[in-house]
């Protein structure tokens, strides 16, 4: 065989079905493509005007008209942009994948700003054939003396071209919809799609239904006149019978309003943060996210270097703990909507927020619905995450009061961010606060200082110093750190654990309130990363502070052995752990403690649905603590043969359980029956 070289040839009949079917995942995207083409054509003309290549009349107003015709099942996209000559139609339209953008940019190199032109691939126009059997183009170029062009194609593979009759500069594209796509000529459907993709397009878009009846001006006037009483009319006519100015003004007002564009050409994110008022941010949030609740606060991203990125991220208000943490980040490129929540650009934890980000530098794929994944995209994502951390830490430092006010709403989000993003965690770790038993917000170092007896104010000051110390002594051995671990007590359910909370308060020991489901994984991560804290739920153990001074377990051995046996037998719980202690508060009779490790293990089993497995397999289960200083416990110890002892034992056990976790149905029933029984005995 001979050696040969040449260009590969593509047969449009074969490639076309592929473009139609596979290129664009959503059929409605043709709206975006054709409107973008109109916008590009206008952007190009604006450039020419700026460069003095063309002078336009003073009243020239750039616009795109979209006209639906539900009766004829057609759609029209009309722009007054650059238009095309016959040669340009041949080059840019008749050749698939040949974009005029590149040509234009080459021609006006250094003068044209590439970023503002949306089209690049030379394929978008053909998306029209996904929904239309026949498409026509009527175009007149801006260049003087050129003829207008009429182009049409049925099916997209063959075309015809002839001189056209368009007399105004610009391009009109008409789509004759196919049967499956008639929905797009419906006014509401079309508007919905345009709003989705083009709400912030830089050129004004006017929408019209060709079949809608125009409201005649006379009607409007007549109607309102009828509503007014004659007296009122008289009052507005002067002595000579002329209508006064007021009345003239009213007539002026009654005229139907001039049509309004359906998009906002200057979205808030394009403005400088200093020029935007608070109300404007809120209004933008309401319109874009249809959220009636006000956002807590927002971050306005505005950068030109090293990449062009603008946007606004809102922290939404969560009303209840059960509100789903689900946000929407809308991604735009040059004010054209790309998609919601693109995970390559938006760090996962930020998807809990609501916002809009416009990044013209995004390496979009052909369909513009997804990204070409590369290092650049990762940098954008990191930048966004850094900006959010900067804003939050700034708030902590400068307006801590506000930070605390928002904390309950923003903390699940921040904690999720710390769990998901190591860099975010590093930046945020010193600005995590916790609500304590008094309802105040403290950092961990502040908590520890207060626990050691310092006042809250002094603690806040010295916490900073400790941070510095910690940094210098980072070469400490792991063993040393282990020894120095600070215990941080916490509450997961204020009602359930109220007995323990009261005991803590009486002893002046503080605890943190950690009620959200994200708190458990969060503190586990904290323990691993910080190494100097050990979290312990307040019902995990009885600390020495609650015990009588000079307390000795040895001295209580007899009580311990006897009561253990008695309770095990009465409750029919062979393995029940019983511990007799002398607690300062003699009112407390019985309590349950469950070691932190066992409880976390049990929680994990519940989370992963590992029911049916024996929780005991991961270590000891609950311990029943009996207070040897309590009268009832003493009575049981001294009167083990009393007929009431079984009743007391069961009741003490249930009461202890109750202040630890909800009773199971069966246990609850017997608790109620037994309580009634006890009252009956008392009544005798
Ligand atoms: N309304 C229009 N006015 C003027 N020129 C147009 C118009 N529509 C299309 N063109 C020309 O046809 C070319 C091809 O358009 P097409 O939509 O297929 O691709 P594109 O916009 O360049 O790129 P992409 O596929 O990324 O959208 C454009 O680059 C432009 O030069």
Automatic annotation (TrEMBL):
Biased amino acid composition, Acidic residues: 216-232, 240-250
Any Pfam family: HSP90
* Stretch forming the signal peptide: none
Region: Disordered; residue ranges are 214-269, 459-486
- GO MF, one annotated term: ATP hydrolysis activity
Q: Does the keyword Chaperone apply?
A: yes
Q: Where does ATP bind?
A: 33, 37, 79, 84, 99-100, 171, 368
Assigned keywords, A-Z:
ATP-binding, Chaperone, Nucleotide-binding
| InterPro entries tied to this protein | HATPase_C_sf, HSP90_C, Hsp90_fam, Hsp90_N, Ribosomal_Su5_D2-typ_SF
Q: Which family does it belong to?
A: Belongs to the heat shock protein 90 family.
Task: Tell me the protein's name.
Answer: Molecular chaperone HtpG
């Amino acid at each position: 065989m001979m050696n040969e070289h040449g260009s590969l040839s593509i047969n449009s009949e074969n490639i076309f079905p592929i473009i139609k079917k596979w290129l664009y995942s959503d059929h409605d995207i043709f709206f975006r493509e054709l409107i973008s083409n109109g916008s590009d054509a206008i952007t190009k003309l604006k450039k020419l005007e700026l460069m003095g290549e063309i002078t336009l009349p003073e009243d020239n107003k750039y616009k795109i008209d979209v006209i639906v015709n539900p009766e004829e099942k057609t759609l029209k996209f009309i722009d007054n942009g650059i238009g095309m000559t016959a040669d340009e139609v041949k080059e840019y339209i008749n050749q698939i994948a040949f974009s005029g953008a590149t040509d234009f940019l080459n021609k006006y190199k250094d003068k044209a700003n590439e970023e503002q032109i949306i089209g690049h691939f030379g394929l978008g126009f053909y998306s029209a054939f996904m929904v239309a059997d026949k498409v026509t183009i009527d175009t007149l170029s801006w260049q003087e003396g050129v003829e207008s062009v009429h182009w049409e194609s049925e099916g997209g593979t063959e075309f015809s071209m002839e001189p056209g009759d368009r007399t105004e500069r610009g391009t009109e594209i008409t789509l004759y919809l196919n049967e499956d796509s008639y929905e797009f000529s419906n006014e509401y459907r079309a508007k919905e799609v345009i709003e989705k993709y083009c709400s912030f397009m830089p050129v004004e878009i006017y929408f019209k239904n060709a079949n809608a009846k125009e409201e005649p001006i006379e009607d409007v006037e007549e109607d309102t006149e009828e509503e007014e009483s004659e007296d009122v009319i008289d009052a507005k006519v002067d002595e000579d019978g002329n209508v006064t100015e007021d009345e003239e003004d009213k007539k002026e007002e009654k005229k139907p309003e001039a049509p309004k564009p359906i998009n906002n050409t200057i979205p808030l994110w394009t403005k400088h943060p200093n020029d935007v008022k608070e109300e404007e941010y809120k209004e933008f949030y309401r319109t874009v996210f249809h959220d009636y609740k006000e956002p807590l606060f927002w971050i306005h991203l505005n950068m030109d270097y090293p990449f062009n990125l603008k946007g606004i991220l809102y922290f939404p208000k969560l009303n209840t703990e059960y509100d789903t943490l689900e946000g929407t980040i809308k991604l735009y490129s040059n004010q054209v909507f790309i998609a919601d929540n693109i995970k390559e650009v938006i760090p996962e934890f930020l998807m809990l927020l609501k916002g809009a980000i416009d990044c013209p530098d995004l390496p979009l794929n052909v369909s513009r619905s997804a990204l070409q994944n590369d290092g650049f995209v990762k940098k954008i994502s990191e930048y966004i995450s850094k900006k959010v951390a900067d804003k939050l830490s700034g708030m902590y430092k400068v307006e801590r009061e506000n930070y605390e006010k928002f904390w309950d709403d923003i903390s699940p989000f921040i904690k999720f961010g710390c769990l998901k993003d190591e860099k975010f965690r590093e930046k945020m770790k010193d600005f995590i606060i916790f609500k304590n038993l008094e309802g105040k917000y403290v950092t961990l170092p502040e908590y520890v200082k207060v626990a050691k007896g310092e006042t809250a104010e002094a603690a806040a000051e010295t916490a900073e110093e400790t941070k510095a110390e910690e940094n210098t002594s980072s070469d400490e051995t792991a063993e040393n750190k282990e020894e120095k671990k600070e215990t941080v007590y916490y509450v997961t359910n204020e009602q359930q654990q109220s007995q323990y909370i009261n005991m803590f308060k009486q002893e002046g020991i503080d605890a943190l309130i950690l009620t959200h489901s994200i708190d458990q994984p969060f503190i586990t991560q904290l323990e691993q990363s910080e190494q100097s804290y050990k979290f312990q739920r307040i019902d995990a153990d009885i600390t020495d502070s609650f015990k009588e001074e000079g307390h000795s377990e040895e001295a209580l051995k007899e009580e311990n052995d006897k009561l253990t046996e008695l309770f095990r037998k009465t409750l029919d719980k062979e393995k029940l752990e019983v511990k007799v202690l002398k607690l300062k508060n003699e009112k407390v009779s019985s309590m349950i403690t469950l070691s932190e490790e066992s409880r976390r293990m049990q929680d994990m089993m519940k989370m992963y649905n590992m029911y049916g497995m024996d929780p005991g397999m991961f270590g000891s289960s609950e311990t029943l603590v009996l207070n040897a200083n309590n009268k009832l416990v003493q009575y049981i110890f001294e009167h083990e043969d009393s007929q009431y002892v079984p009743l007391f034992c069961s009741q003490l056990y249930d009461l202890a359980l109750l202040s630890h976790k909800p009773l199971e149905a069966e246990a609850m029933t017997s608790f109620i029956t037994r309580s009634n029984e006890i009252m009956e005995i008392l009544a005798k």
